[in-house]
Model the fold of this input.
Amino acid sequence: MSEIIAFQRGGRKDDMVWAVVATVGRALRIAEIYPARPAAMADRDWREQQVRAYAAFLRQTRQPVPRYSVQPIRRADLPRAWRPLPALGFLRGQFV
Done:
Protein backbone atom coordinates (compact mmCIF):
# COMPACT_ATOMS: atom_id res chain seq x y z
CA MET A 1 0.00 0.00 0.00
CA SER A 2 1.40 3.40 -0.94
CA GLU A 3 0.88 6.40 1.26
CA ILE A 4 1.89 10.03 0.86
CA ILE A 5 3.79 11.46 3.77
CA ALA A 6 3.81 15.23 4.16
CA PHE A 7 6.97 16.74 5.61
CA GLN A 8 6.65 19.94 7.56
CA ARG A 9 8.72 22.83 6.31
CA GLY A 10 10.62 25.03 8.70
CA GLY A 11 12.68 24.32 11.75
CA ARG A 12 11.61 22.81 14.99
CA LYS A 13 10.37 25.15 17.68
CA ASP A 14 13.38 24.37 19.89
CA ASP A 15 15.66 25.39 17.00
CA MET A 16 14.71 29.07 17.48
CA VAL A 17 16.71 31.33 19.80
CA TRP A 18 16.66 35.05 20.51
CA ALA A 19 19.69 36.97 19.30
CA VAL A 20 21.03 40.31 20.47
CA VAL A 21 22.25 41.88 17.23
CA ALA A 22 24.81 44.70 17.14
CA THR A 23 24.66 47.02 14.13
CA VAL A 24 27.30 49.54 13.07
CA GLY A 25 26.52 51.10 9.71
CA ARG A 26 25.77 48.18 7.40
CA ALA A 27 27.69 45.63 9.47
CA LEU A 28 25.64 43.25 11.58
CA ARG A 29 27.06 40.98 14.27
CA ILE A 30 25.26 38.59 16.56
CA ALA A 31 26.42 39.67 20.00
CA GLU A 32 24.76 36.92 22.07
CA ILE A 33 21.98 34.34 21.90
CA TYR A 34 19.37 33.33 24.49
CA PRO A 35 16.62 30.72 24.63
CA ALA A 36 14.09 33.27 25.98
CA ARG A 37 13.21 36.78 24.79
CA PRO A 38 13.25 38.43 28.28
CA ALA A 39 16.89 37.38 28.79
CA ALA A 40 17.83 38.78 25.38
CA MET A 41 16.03 42.06 26.15
CA ALA A 42 17.89 42.35 29.46
CA ASP A 43 21.23 41.78 27.71
CA ARG A 44 20.36 44.37 25.05
CA ASP A 45 19.51 46.91 27.77
CA TRP A 46 22.79 46.19 29.56
CA ARG A 47 24.79 46.62 26.34
CA GLU A 48 23.05 49.92 25.58
CA GLN A 49 23.87 51.09 29.13
CA GLN A 50 27.54 50.24 28.56
CA VAL A 51 27.56 52.24 25.32
CA ARG A 52 25.94 55.23 27.08
CA ALA A 53 28.60 55.02 29.81
CA TYR A 54 31.33 55.34 27.16
CA ALA A 55 29.51 57.90 24.97
CA ALA A 56 32.04 60.69 25.62
CA PHE A 57 34.93 58.39 24.79
CA LEU A 58 33.22 57.26 21.57
CA ARG A 59 32.65 60.85 20.46
CA GLN A 60 36.25 61.80 21.28
CA THR A 61 37.73 58.90 19.30
CA ARG A 62 35.14 59.20 16.51
CA GLN A 63 34.12 55.56 16.92
CA PRO A 64 30.75 54.62 15.43
CA VAL A 65 28.16 53.83 18.07
CA PRO A 66 26.62 50.35 17.77
CA ARG A 67 22.87 49.90 17.97
CA TYR A 68 21.49 46.78 19.61
CA SER A 69 18.29 44.96 18.74
CA VAL A 70 16.67 41.63 19.58
CA GLN A 71 15.35 39.24 16.94
CA PRO A 72 14.54 35.54 16.66
CA ILE A 73 16.91 33.36 14.63
CA ARG A 74 17.42 29.69 13.96
CA ARG A 75 20.48 27.99 15.44
CA ALA A 76 21.32 26.77 11.95
CA ASP A 77 21.67 30.40 10.81
CA LEU A 78 24.51 31.11 13.25
CA PRO A 79 27.90 31.34 11.53
CA ARG A 80 29.99 28.22 12.09
CA ALA A 81 32.75 30.02 14.02
CA TRP A 82 30.40 32.36 15.94
CA ARG A 83 31.57 33.62 19.31
CA PRO A 84 29.79 36.03 21.68
CA LEU A 85 30.66 39.69 21.14
CA PRO A 86 31.92 41.57 24.20
CA ALA A 87 29.75 44.58 25.10
CA LEU A 88 32.60 46.95 24.36
CA GLY A 89 34.46 44.75 21.89
CA PHE A 90 34.09 47.46 19.25
CA LEU A 91 36.48 49.71 21.19
CA ARG A 92 39.55 47.91 19.84
CA GLY A 93 39.44 50.01 16.69
CA GLN A 94 37.33 47.62 14.68
CA PHE A 95 33.89 46.10 14.90
CA VAL A 96 34.76 42.54 15.94
Notes: The first helix runs from residue 37 to 53. Residues 16-77 form one domain.
